[in-house]
């Protein structure tokens, strides 16, 4: 039962579902019936559904048939009306066909025109689109063309700017075009090309300024010289000092304006041509000679490209190399001043360029870099100058070199470089300059001394007298009163030497100019150099003249007179130095001149030479002595050689009138002592083994002649018999033998009041031995005579007593 109920329930549910599906099919649009039908086929009762569907169709057919039967007459009427309408429709169709044909025929031209219009509108649209695209592309192409033109004309910095605009502004707007991609690919190459070309320009610039550094430096040094001249003028005329410009202002007024990228400044060779200026024309500023635009352009380009550090390192490295080349002096630089000038010009030119770069660029070079280069340059320059200046022996060249170094230092100091070491080195060169001056003046003094006639200067007119007095400070009231012609006591070398000493002082003063030294330092330098001139150079020259073999007594006397007057002139030299340095001699630490000592030494040397010369002359006369030591009878007069000797001495001492009294007295006393000693040696020499009393008497006559000469006062100033005392030894010895006064000699020997106090027993014994030998030889037979025997015994007794005196004295 339950199964039957369940089957019945399922049958009812299926029937309800089929009913729902049928209603859905009837009410739903045909396009959406698919899902409904699918639900039928998804189930298992589609056969029953088909039966239901067929039943429903039959129901609908019956309803349609009923509806048609109900409306059939109306349908027939409608068909009739429709047939009538068909005929009219056919007519209308024909009319429409005709009208259409006519319309088609009439519209062909319009269609053609419309097609043409359509094409025109299409072209217009394409043209408009093309214009729009070209409007975007043309600026790109124009910029690229401009870029190429700038590259071609070597305007690299503008080209780089154009490239930046092209890359960042224009190309992004048209990046989808193929030609833009080509441009984008070329941009790195163009940048590299600009970089290489700008670097090439920089290399050309560096090479150019290396070659033209001397011209740049020459111009800068001319400008510094003009500024110094202007300063001198202003210092001489203080009233116009308000218009004076400083060095920095002058340099600033001549500096180039830094221009970025003016098209007119793009082409350059680094150096501008400058015609030679006349001295009266204004010298152009050093920077006016140089076009720095290649440096600025390359710096800007590398900065834009992000490679500024690379550029800075390259620039500094190249300039360091150039600095080393510039600082390498030529091997023959010391031969001429032009060699030094060119060397300095190159150094100045190098640092003028670097100073300008320092002040016109931001960071390309810095002060530390400049200071490092300058320290290197300063050390190498000073070393080179020390080496090359040491070869220089011409004081004029050394002085010119000093002036050039001062100008070199002032020029660089004007650009802010420290130059104290250069001035310190100039003090070293000053010592060398002094040495070269001393060598030069040594030759000058030698020429003066060699060419002098060593005779008093004759004066025949007032004009000549005033001229000489103007050259040499000499005052003598007695000489002024004398009528012309008259003579100065000194020879020509006195005013010449005095003037040359002044010239030397002037030469020393010239070197001290512009060295920024105080008056005291200049005064000390001049005095020390002058002392060297006096004590070394002039002293040596005088000593050489005095020691010459052929110098005569007259020359020696004149030298003594000359040095006396030069010694007196030393105070005038002191005043001369004081006047030119404005430093009073009383100032603390002031060096004194040693001229007095120099001339005293020279005079003493001349005096000694006079004494030596006189003694040599006396020896020459004594060599003419020809005594007959065995003569029995003397002649009635002195020997001829001695008479001639005394005559020579009289004439010689007559020349000594202008000598200081002490010198003449010393010379005379020295001559007399030497003559006395020489005569004593002549009497006692070993070659004279025997002599007679007659020979002693003849010798006595010669000694008396000498004593007579001494008594005559050949040189004034001796008191009493002072000069005769030179012959006292000879006189007492001769008196002892001629008077044969042995008893007195032996009795009084050793007492202060002894008559023969100056007779030495040894001397007496030697002479006695010579007389005893003579007695023995000449009186062989006379020994049998009593007197002769007694005399021989007496001689033997005296000789024995003399030996006893000698032995007792030695013991």
Q: Can you tell me the residue ranges where pLDDT is under 50 for at least 5 consecutive residues?
A: 238-281, 779-784
Helix content: over 70%
Along the chain, the helix and strand elements come as: HHHHHHHHHHHHHEHHEHHHHHHHHHHHH
* Structural class by secondary-structure content: mainly alpha
What's the number of extended β-strand segments? 2
Distance between the termini: 202 Å
Shape: rod-shaped
- Please state the CA-atom Rg, rounded to the nearest Å: 68 Å
- Counted by DSSP, the helix tally is 27
Mean pLDDT score, rounded?
A: 77
Beta strand %: under 5%
Most strands sheet: 2 strands, antiparallel
Strand order, largest beta sheet = 1-2
Explain the overall architecture.
The protein contains 27 helices and two strands. Helix 13 packs parallel to helix 17, helix 17 (519-546) runs parallel beside helix 20 and helix 23 (693-711) runs antiparallel to helix 24. The model is unreliable at 238-281 and 779-784 (pLDDT under 50). The longest helix has 107 residues, at 46-152. It is mainly α. It has a two-stranded antiparallel sheet. The protein is rod-shaped.
């Amino acid at each position: 039962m339950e199964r039957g109920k369940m089957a019945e329930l399922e049958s009812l549910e299926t029937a309800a579902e089929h009913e729902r599906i049928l209603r859905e099919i009837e009410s739903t649009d045909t396009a959406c019936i698919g899902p409904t039908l699918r639900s039928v086929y998804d189930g298992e009762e589609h056969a029953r559904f088909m039966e239901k569907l067929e039943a429903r169709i039959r129901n609908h057919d019956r309803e349609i048939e009923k509806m048609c039967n109900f409306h059939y007459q109306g349908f027939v009427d409608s068909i009739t009306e429709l047939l009538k309408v068909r005929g009219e429709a056919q007519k209308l169709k024909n009319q429409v066909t005709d009208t259409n044909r006519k319309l088609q025929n009439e519209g062909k031209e319009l269609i053609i025109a419309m097609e043409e219009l359509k094409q025109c509108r299409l072209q217009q649209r394409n043209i408009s689109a093309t214009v729009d695209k070209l409007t975007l592309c043309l600026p790109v192409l124009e910029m690229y063309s401009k870029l190429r033109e700038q590259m071609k004309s070597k305007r690299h910095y503008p080209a780089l700017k154009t490239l930046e605009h092209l890359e960042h502004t224009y190309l992004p707007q048209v990046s989808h075009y193929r030609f833009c991609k080509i441009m984008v690919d070329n941009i790195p190459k163009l940048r590299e090309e600009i970089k290489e070309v700008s670097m090439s320009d920089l290399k050309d610039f560096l090479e150019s300024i290396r070659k033209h550094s001397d011209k740049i430096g020459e111009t800068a040094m001319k400008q510094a010289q003009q500024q110094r001249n202007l300063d001198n003028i202003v210092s001489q005329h203080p009233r116009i000092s308000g218009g004076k410009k400083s060095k920095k202002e002058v340099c600033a007024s001549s500096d180039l304006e830094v221009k970025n990228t003016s098209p007119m400044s793009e082409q350059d060779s680094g150096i501008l041509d400058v015609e030679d200026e006349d001295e009266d024309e204004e010298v152009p500023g050093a920077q006016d000679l140089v076009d720095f635009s290649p440096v600025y352009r390359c710096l800007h380009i590398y900065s834009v490209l992000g490679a500024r550090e690379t550029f800075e390192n390259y620039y500094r490295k190249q300039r360091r190399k150039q600095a080393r080349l510039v600082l390498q002096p030529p091997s023959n630089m010391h031969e001429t001043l032009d060699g030094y000038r060119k060397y300095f010009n190159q150094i100045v030119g190098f640092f003028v360029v670097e100073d300008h770069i320092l002040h016109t660029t931001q960071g390309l070079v810095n002060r530390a870099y400049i200071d490092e280069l300058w320290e290197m340059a300063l050390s190498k320059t000073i070393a080179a100058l020390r080496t090359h200046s040491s070869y220089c022996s011409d004081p004029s060249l050394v002085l010119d070199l000093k002036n050039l170094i001062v100008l070199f230092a002032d020029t660089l100091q004007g650009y802010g470089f420290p130059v104290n070491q250069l001035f310190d080195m100039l003090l070293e060169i000053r010592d060398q300059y002094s040495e070269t001056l001393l060598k030069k003046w040594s030759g000058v003094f030698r020429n003066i001394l060699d060419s002098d006639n060593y005779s008093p200067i004759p004066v025949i007119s007032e004009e000549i007298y005033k001229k000489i007095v103007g050259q040499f400070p000499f005052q003598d009231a007695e000489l002024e009163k004398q009528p012309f012609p008259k003579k100065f006591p000194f020879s020509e070398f006195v005013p010449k030497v005095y003037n040359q000493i002044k010239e030397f002082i002037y030469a020393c003063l010239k070197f001290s100019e512009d060295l920024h030294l105080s008056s005291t330092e200049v005064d000390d330098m001049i005095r020390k150099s002058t002392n060297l001139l006096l004590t070394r150079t002039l002293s040596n020259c005088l000593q050489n003249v005095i020691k010459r073999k052929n110098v005569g007594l007259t020359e020696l006397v004149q030298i003594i007179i000359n040095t006396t007057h030069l010694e007196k002139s030393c105070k005038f030299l002191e005043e001369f130095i004081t006047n030119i340095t404005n430093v009073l001699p009383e100032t603390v630490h002031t060096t004194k001149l040693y001229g007095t000592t120099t001339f005293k030494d020279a005079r003493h040397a001349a005096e000694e030479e006079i004494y030596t010369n006189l003694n040599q002359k006396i020896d020459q006369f004594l060599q003419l002595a020809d005594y007959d030591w065995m003569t029995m009878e003397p002649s009635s007069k002195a020997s001829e050689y001695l008479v001639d000797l005394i005559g020579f001495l009289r004439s010689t001492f007559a020349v000594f009138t202008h000598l200081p009294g002490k010198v003449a007295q010393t010379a005379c006393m020295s001559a007399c002592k030497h003559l006395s000693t020489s005569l004593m040696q002549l009497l006692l020499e070993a070659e004279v083994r025997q002599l007679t009393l007659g020979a002693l008497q003849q010798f006595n006559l010669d000694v008396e002649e000498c004593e007579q000469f001494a008594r005559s006062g050949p040189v004034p100033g001796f008191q009493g018999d002072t000069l005769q005392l030179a012959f006292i030894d000879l006189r007492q010895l001769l008196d002892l033998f001629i008077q044969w006064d042995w008893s007195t000699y032996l009795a009084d020997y050793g007492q202060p009041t002894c008559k023969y106090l100056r007779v030495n027993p040894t001397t007496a014994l030697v002479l006695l031995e010579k007389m005893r030998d003579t007695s023995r030889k000449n009186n062989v037979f006379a020994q049998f005579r009593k007197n002769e025997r007694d005399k021989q015994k007496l001689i033997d007794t005296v000789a024995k007593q003399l030996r006893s005196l000698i032995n007792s004295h030695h013991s």
